[in-house]
Write a structure and sequence with these properties.
alpha/beta, binds flavin-adenine dinucleotide, globular, 13 helices, 8-stranded mixed β-sheet
């Protein structure tokens, strides 16, 4: 794809036309102690590197740039509070291989599938090393993930998953209904495959902790939205704090780690598929409710059907339900989509936990993901080669591993490194162009609806 195709008619000065706006309903963030005061960007600054976006990708890019360039100044700019972004809104499955066990790419080509798993594990290792080194308190636990079936169709999918895992020499164990009931408390599932090498985490605590423990050559500015960019090089970013305070920073090296909102900067306007997915979390269970439920204190379940429901039971005695994908460029969609999500989550919860029918949800929230038609990420230079504008975007709903590794490897590439992992990221190609509108949005919505129907009781 040529630079002009990516950029469209990008002006030298771009007004950032699309920005995330999130409510205060993200359970993971709200159940933590309130964050300290933000330090928004003020005045006119310079930095050797500026990373925009403090999700998984931006945090990894920023840390790695600072590690590899200890004499350089690195600035991380985040529009919201860290933890209230999509990264902090995730379900906290830090997974090493397929979420979607029907994904065509998974284990159809054995060697690429193995390399993909190794890449994800490189990300999880980087996260674990950082969490351990800095003692980040985020309930990071290597519990693996259960892929669980509630229907005959789901069980068939699990058979295919087992065959794929065999093909790539991956460990797993099988579990039948009685054992699952003893473990989960819920008798909803017929069988499951447990893949042991994934982690579970409190996502908002993790991203806050990652930002708080950056190397000394990093400055972090939260509540600082980039509203305009004068593209150079050098590039000048103009920022706003709640429409009141203003600031700017000029840099030769700009990294956009802004999820689908990269479109607002003039890139990939016709290539990304922006989606919202939704979570709900109960209030804390009482001692009596914990006894009523039974099972162990913490686990993570991914539905056998890819459009089904993910479930977390947390050590903080809450249950999370995640399902539904809504097509939207805006992160702030509420009203009917939010009500639909909450009602669907409630039914999914009651199906699994009828013994807790009197336990309400305390929070329901949505968060943005970006997908592409061909599954390719945005990784590398954006625009004209040598201009110093880089991107790490599109992690296809598996942002903890894929966002982290993409950000880390982008920093290594920018710092002149070469490696097999960078070559693998480069080999993934570039996002393909969407179908023209209105066919694109119509097709995406129809596909989401069809997949929901297919999921049936797995939802
Ligand atoms: C409900 C839900 C459950 C999920 N569960 C999982 C899961 O269990 N496991 C998993 O791996 N993934 C999960 N995901 C997906 C994961 O959250 C995303 O893939 C991930 O957050 C993408 O990371 P990112 O760094 O690219 O983007 P983000 O986390 O969205 O970070 C981008 C940042 O850029 C900032 N930004 C954008 N524009 C500007 C601007 N103009 N100025 C300043 N800042 C700006 C945003 O505020 C944001 O903080 C889930 C997502 C949701 C919503």
């Amino acid at each position: 794809m040529s630079a002009s195709e990516q950029l469209g008619k990008r002006a030298q000065r771009a007004t950032v036309s699309l920005a995330p706006v999130y409510d205060q309903q993200n359970a993971w963030q709200e159940i933590l102690p309130p964050p300290g005061e933000a330090t928004p960007l003020t005045g006119d600054r310079t930095a050797d590197y500026v990373v925009v976006g403090a999700g998984y990708s931006g945090l990894a890019a920023c840390r790695r740039l600072a590690e590899l360039n200890p004499d350089a100044s690195v600035m991380l700019i985040e529009g919201d509070r860290i933890g209230n972004n999509a990264a902090g809104r995730s379900s906290g499955f830090a997974i090493d291989h397929a979420h979607n066990i029907r994904a065509k790419s998974f284990a159809e080509n054995i060697e690429p599938a193995k390399r993909e798993v190794a890449l994800n594990r490189e990300a999880l290792q980087y996260l674990e090393d950082t969490i351990v080194e800095h003692g980040i308190d985020c309930d990071w636990r290597r519990e693996g993930k259960y892929h669980a079936a509630a229907t005959a169709k789901g069980e068939k999918l699990l058979e295919g998953f087992a065959a794929s895992l065999d093909a790539i020499d991956e460990d797993y164990s099988r579990h039948e209904a009685a054992a699952l009931q003893a473990h989960f408390g819920s008798g909803f599932y017929r069988s499951a495959i447990h893949a042991p090498h994934s982690y579970l985490v409190q996502p908002a605590a993790m991203v806050r902790g990652l930002a708080d423990t950056m190397p000394d050559n990093v400055t972090v500015h939260e509540s600082t939205m980039v509203t305009e960019v004068d593209f150079g090089p050098p590039h000048t970013l103009h920022t706003s704090t709640g429409g009141v305070g203003r600031g700017s920073v000029t840099t030769p090296n700009l990294v956009l780690a802004t999820n689908g909102f990269v479109e607002g900067f003039g890139f990939f306007a016709k290539h990304l598929i922006p989606m919202i997915t939704w979570g709900s979390m109960t209030r804390e269970l009482t001692d009596e409710e914990v006894d009523r439920l039974g099972g162990v204190e913490s686990y993570g379940i991914i539905a056998a059907h890819p459009a089904g429901t993910s479930v977390r039971r947390t050590a903080s005695r809450r249950i999370l339900i995640r399902n539904i994908f809504s097509y939207s460029r805006r992160s702030s969609i509420v009203g009917k989509p939010l009500e639909t999500a909450r009602a669907t989550h409630r039914q999914s919860f009651l199906n699994r936990y009828p013994m807790l029918a009197d336990v309400p949800f305390e929070f329901t929230w949505g968060g943005a993901l970006s997908l592409t038609r061909n599954g390719a990420p945005v990784f590398g230079e954006l625009g004209n080669p040598g201009d110093g504008v880089w991107g790490t975007v599109v992690h296809n709903g598996v942002g903890i591993a894929k966002g982290t590794i993409s950000g880390k490897l982008l920093a290594e590439k920018m710092s002149g490194h070469e490696s097999d992992s960078i070559a693998l990221m480069d080999s993934k190609g570039r996002p393909s162009r969407n179908f023209p509108e209105p066919f694109n949005s119509w097709g995406v919505r129809m596909n989401a609806r069809w997949r929901r129907q297919q999921a049936g009781l797995e939802e």
